[in-house]
Every structure is written in structure tokens, then in C-alpha cells.
Amino acid sequence: MTNRLVLQAITRTFQDGGNERMILDKLDLEVAEGELVAVMGPSGSGKSTFLSIAGALLEPTSGQVLIDGEAIQGKDMQELSELRLQKIGFIFQSANLIPYLKVEEQLILISKLAGTEKARAGQRAKTLLDQMGLSHRRNAYPEKLSGGERQRVAIARAFMNDPAVLFADEPTASLDASRGLDVVRMIAKQVKDQRKSAVMVTHDDRVLPLCDRVLWLENGKLITK
Hints:
Subunit structure: The complex is composed of two ATP-binding proteins (HrtA), two transmembrane proteins (HrtB) and a solute-binding protein.
CATH class: Alpha Beta
CATH topology: Rossmann fold
Function: Part of the ABC transporter complex hrt involved in hemin import. Responsible for energy coupling to the transport system.
Number of helices: 6
Largest sheet: 6 strands, mixed
Strand order of the largest sheet: 6-7-8-3-9-10
Membrane topology: Peripheral membrane protein
GO molecular function: ATP binding
Shape: globular
Family: Belongs to the ABC transporter superfamily. HrtA family.
Helix content: 25-40%
Mean pLDDT: 93
């Protein structure tokens, strides 16, 4: 089975009042295609740092990140930007939709940035909105959507460029229990159906049964309890 996300001996330190503080300590992680891994940990444990490094937003002090077999280290800013656009999908606590774009336009914009042909992008958007149960909302603006609908649009947008790896950062934090479960259920289904590797940082115990593995970030390492 292919591991579409691999982190090898990731270390991240920073200076704190003249002292070097260790945030991640030779952290290792492999996530197979079709697998959704939940990462938990208290505030200050390094979850945001971990997610930023894994998502090519922050450079580790040492170690290697591979996305779909491709090493991140050594790439310049433009190359990293292209990699994020083509290979990585992000879902955040807030849907972060553009207020003046309709639902379908939110998705089409992502494909346009990647240089995808217009007709192909339109078909991809239609397919994803169908899968998310949002076909009837394709011409709605974000202000007209419920919180759950906005997060479903965010999921569809994250999958728009067919990324290898998906990262979700507290995707249920702004939703009630029922909507939160629905959102994670949809993420898990898309990950399995499309054979992605996915990592979700969460504090929501209710969604853990929907994940394939649950890891805790403690003392700079990911462990199983």
C-alpha cells in the first residue's frame, strides 16, 4: 500500500528567551492511501507546527517530508506554492469562503489557479458538489449557507485539484455535534473513495470512530495510546 504522506525524523526548534525550545523531536509518520489519521494533543503540544510542516507551510529544523513520494525540502517558494496547489488540500476550522463568489465559483477558482481547462474544471466541480449534496446550492453565496453547508463547500474545494494529501485543522470546531459528524463522515468517504492520505487535527472525541487511526502528540512525537 502506498504512503502518500511520509514524515521522517522531523525536528522543529525555536529560540525562547535565549533558550532553544524543542517543539517536534524526530517525529515520524506514514499515512497510507485511503487512510484518515486523527491527531490529538493539548494546546501548546505542537499540533499547529506539525500541520504547517506536513503541509509545506513551514520548514522543519531537520528531517524530511514527502508528499506522494516527492521530497519538499530544497524547493524554492514558487515550487512549494505549486506543490501545495497541485498535491495538497486544506480544510480549516472556518470554511474561509470568498464572500463574493458563488459556491461553484469557489471551486472553479482553485482549478483556474492550477491552469485546469475550463470544461474539465466545470465537470469536476459538478461531480464534487453532487457528492457533497450541494448541487442545489451551486449558485448560492456563502452568506446564504448554513455552517455545515459552508464546510461541505470547503471539503469540495480541498478536493478540487485531486490532491494526494488532505489536511483538516479542527474542521468540526464551529459546528454542532450532528453537523460535525456529517462533515467528518464526508471527509472520510472522499479519502477512501479517492485513495488520498489524510490527517485531521481535532479535539472532538465524537468523530474519532470515523478515523482509521488516532495518534497523540506528546513531547514532540506522535504516539498511540
